[in-house]
Structure formats: C-alpha cells, structure tokens
Design goal:
This protein has 245 residues and is of the alpha+beta class. It has six helices and eight strands; from the N terminus they run E-E-E-E-E-H-H-H-H-E-E-E-H-H. It folds into two domains: 4-79, Nucleic acid-binding proteins (OB fold (Dihydrolipoamide Acetyltransferase, E2P)), CATH 2.40.50.140; 83-242, Recombination protein O, C-terminal domain (de novo design (two linked rop proteins)). A hairpin with a 7-residue loop joins strand 4 (56-62) and strand 5 (70-79).
C-alpha cells in the first residue's frame, strides 16, 4: 500500500517503547489520525523534530485497512509558533485547541475549515496587539459550527422566534432564549446585551474577534463558551481553568 501525504498539527505524543511513540495528529486531508512512529524517540530518525507538540509537519502515512494504529513513516517540520513559548496564556490556549481537536472528533473525519482555522489561531496567539481570548473564541465558533453544534444566536433556541434582545443562554437548548421560553430551561445563564452582540459578531465574521476589546464582554463570552463546551463534551476540559479572556 503506498504512503499517503498530509499536512498535520501534532496534538499529542505518547512514548510507546524505548524507541517509538504513538502520535495523535489533526490533518487537513484526513482529520484526526493516530499513528505509530517507529523510532520516533531516537535523536536521528525519519522524524527528527517533526513531532514536536503543536508543530505543523508534512507527514507520510501508511493507513491500516482494519483496526490498529496507522504507521507514520516520515514527518518534516513545516511551521512552529515561537510566540507560544513567551506567552503562557497563549500556550494554554494552544493546548486547549489541541485538547478539543483530539477529544471531540472521530478518526478520519476531515474538516479542512477547522484545520485552517486552528492554524490561523495558533499563528495569531501571543500577538501583543490583540488579546488571546477573542481569537480562541473565534476558533471555538468555527469548530462548533463545523461539528454541528453552532449555537442559535439570532432566534430563540427553543421556539425559533427572531429576537430583538436576548437575556439568557441555555447550553441544553443550544443558544439564546426568548422571555417566554426562558423559564423552562433550568440551565440558563443570564447574558448582557454586550455579550450577546459579541457572540453574534464572533459567529458571523472572521475578523470580528479583533474588535472585542471590552474586558467585561470578553470575560462574559468566555464564561458562556466554557459552559456550552462543558455541556457538549459531558465533562470540563482539562485546560479550561487556565484560559484567559
């Protein structure tokens, strides 16, 4: 079987033996891939530094026909993100992206839009001219939409009525609520008008995150997304306590 080529972000690595490791990759072509890198722990190998966590690499892969791990035959560094080393908040945000991609998707379920957004987010994190929180929030919105969990923000998530204002967000309902449906959702949390506007802007336009400069609105957006992602995953993501707004 010929090797297949892909562009990948390294999400996780686990030592498998004295010389090999198991790697989890998010590829543009195939989605999430778990593969065995034989000799991946050796200083001199076909992988060299290509399997550094959160790096982007060009890989060659032998896919298994049924079950088991794929076999990684080559990984070459394409890009690194040096700003992550100098900004702890950016690094935690990057680890959070890796956690979501690794835990929230099935093997071989490609989403090129998510890959491109993850790449753009990793590149932007640590930019001193823009806070990390809004850029991370934009990535979450793209991921939610692509996986089919995008929240209802313009109309009530229960009855569908178009809203002039939203006073609450319900993870169970999947979005904002009108005043009539609000009492029926026990998990609702109140939101301000500024938060509602920010959520809609983040969902609609790719660069709207740059305009989210109000600290109070950023903090509220982070709380809403934390609540929603935790509900959808069925557990609290491990990196969530370390994220800034």
């Amino acid at each position: 079987m010929p090797a297949e080529k892909a562009l990948a972000i390294v999400l996780r690595t686990i030592d498998f033996s004295e010389t090999s490791r198991v790697v989890t990759l998010w590829t543009r072509e195939f989605g999430k891939v778990r593969a065995l890198a034989k000799g991946g722990r050796r200083l001199r190998s076909a992988f060299e530094n290509g399997l550094d966590l959160l790096g982007v690499c060009s890989i060659s892969l032998l896919r298994k026909s049924s079950g088991g791990l794929d076999l990684l035959t080559e990984a070459q560094v394409v890009r690194r993100f040096p700003r992550l080393r100098a900004d702890l908040t950016a690094l935690y945000a990057a680890y959070y992206i890796a956690e979501l991609l690794a835990d929230w998707s099935g093997d071989y379920d490609p989403h090129p839009i998510v890959f491109d957004e993850a790449l753009a987010t990793l590149q932007a994190l640590g930019d001193p001219d823009h806070p990390n929180g809004p850029r991370l929030a934009r990535f979450e919105f793209v991921l939610l939409r692509e996986l089919g969990y995008g929240p209802s923000l313009d109309g009530c998530a229960v009855c569908g009525e178009t809203l002039d204002r939203a006073d609450a967000f319900s993870p169970a309902a999947g979005g904002v609520l009108c005043t009539v449906c609000l009492p029926g959702q026990s998990d609702r949390r109140p939101i301000t008008a500024a938060c509602w506007r920010a959520l809609r802007d983040l969902d609609r336009a790719g660069d709207a995150w740059r305009g989210l400069v109000c600290p109070e609105a950023r903090a509220e957006v982070r709380q809403v997304l934390n609540h929603y992602v935790t509900y959808l995953l069925g557990r609290r993501p491990r990196l969530l306590p370390y994220l800034g707004s």
